[in-house]
Amino acid sequence: MQALMLAVTIAVAVAASASRFIAAEGPYAKAPALGIHIGTLGHGRNDAITDVAGVRVGQITHIEGAGRLIPGRGPARTGVTAIIPRDDVWHKKVFAAAWALNGNGEMTGTTWINEAGWMEVPILLTDTLSVGRVDDGVVSWMLGRYPGIGTTDDVPLPVVAECDDAFLNDQPGRHNTAADAVAALSGAVGGPVSQGGVGAGTGMVSFEFKGGIGTASRVLPAAAGGYTVGVLVNTNTGRRNELTVAGVPVGSRIGDFLPKEPHAGDGSIIIVIATDAPLLHDQLLRLAKRAALGLARTGATSRTGSGDLIIAFSTANIVPHYPRARTFTVTVLDQYHINSLFDATEESTEEAIVNALLAGRTMVGRDGNTVYALPHDRLMRILRSYGL
After folding, report:
1. Distances in Å between the alpha carbon of 66 and those of 168, 204, 301, 334, 372?
2. Which residues contact 237 (CB under 8 A, 6 or more apart)?
3. Are 296 and 257 in contact (CB under 8 A)?
């Protein structure tokens, strides 16, 4: 009991000591709000993946217990994040594509997505050992909405992507359940998206600062079609000396605030791209590859231990569930007008990663392992020293 009280006291003290560095948090910890301008394109109303009409996000967070790790019991620092491309995606499928920058990770269901060229399920993010339980929850949620599945209808292949949160979380406990997946999906909404240590991002570490969920969007000028690109990331990647913000080598200038206890591993990142531009599978695959350039701009390197997985979808067309005719009609953007969407993807990805760091709050996890928030005041002083 004394150990538990001590751990809680330490957690409160660490959070209090770091709080002066937090200029904003939750859905409003955005780079533009701090005067950090990434790229040249403007962002959408929420600067989030939900700026693509119809896209909804739901999150379940587990921050439970403190102190010494008891495998299977806690402490828990984990969660589930759900992205729903549009209402009734089962009957109104979206064109999609998935790509692995480095494949030491898992995103289920993508073999069929790349074979068919479209997606008919939501996208769920969680921790590594909870993939099976979350997959089960997606099936339960789908059965509740479409009771013919598995009998008079086809069966879905859920898309569940993972990152390892074992530094802060009791991963053997598999604290994310099927019920959590159902709750995240059922509670998904549009509008502002909470960022940082929430949902699947709860136990994430990025550039040896607190990482997690980040999101951003870009809107093309009317002359370029006025399309929107939104990105959501779960960032668990990067080493401190690599961190680059708006082209400035920030990480090499902040040598303290390192995690309590060594943090080993190459980390991972999941990148989800949504757009309302009328793109087909092959074009979305090209878009997914461009997200890697946005990741690179933050200084991250995709190493052999990384699970750097990217998925992109377009809401512009509807792929019918069982078309009565042999063919159906779609609208397709000409390839020679796609470059501005590449720009939007790269900028949104870069900012989403920065936003995850800006929203991160110092967290104490299992065994007292501590990851500190990126200090906003130090960040801004460094950026100003470079004239930004």
Report:
1. 10, 17, 32, 54, 17
2. 206, 207, 211, 266, 267, 268, 269, 295, 300, 306, 308
3. no
Does the structure show a pLDDT above 50 at 2?
no
Active centre residues (catalytic):
268, 306, 308
Mean pLDDT of the chain: 92
pLDDT reported for residue 28: 55
- Tokens read off for 372: 């500190």
| CA distances from residue 21 to 30, 84, 373 in whole angstroms, order as listed | 15, 34, 8
**pLDDT number for residue 264:** 66
| Angstrom distance (rounded) from CA 365 to CA 77 | 7
pLDDT tens string 342-373 = 999 999 999 999 999 999 999 999 999 999 99
Place of tokens 């533009």: 32
What number is the average pLDDT over the span 318-332? 91
Domains and CATH numbers, the chain: 2-385 (3.60.70.12)
φ and ψ of 282, to 5 deg: -65, -35
Distance between CA 94 and CA 165 in Å, rounded?
30
Tell me the C-alpha distance between 163 and 169, whole Å. 12
